[in-house]
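Bumping my old thread because nobody answered last time. Still need a sequence for this structure:
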């Protein structure tokens, strides 16, 4: 139902960018909350294997890659 509403209100060529922006906005809000309550500091301090830092860097890199690919597809249209 939501997809049908979005497809009617927004052009379908901008729909992937809109979905990316909504997902990134929700993740950014969660990041700010975790930062405010000190959960990132706790996570990085207690992690001796640095897997949390690796996952965080991979997540940011993947998110930026998705943004670049989505905007490149929009520029082609």
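Sorry it took so long. Here it is:
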């Amino acid at each position: 139902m939501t997809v049908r509403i979005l497809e009617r209100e927004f052009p379908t060529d901008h729909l992937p960018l809109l979905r990316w922006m909504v997902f990134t906005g929700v993740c950014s809000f969660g990041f700010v909350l975790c930062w405010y309550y000190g959960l990132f500091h706790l996570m990085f301090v207690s992690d001796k294997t640095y897997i949390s830092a690796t996952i965080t860097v991979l997540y940011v890199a993947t998110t930026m890659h998705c943004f670049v690919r989505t905007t490149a597809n929009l520029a082609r249209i």
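The helical segments are 2-9, 15-36, 39-46, 51-76. Let me know if any region looks off to you.
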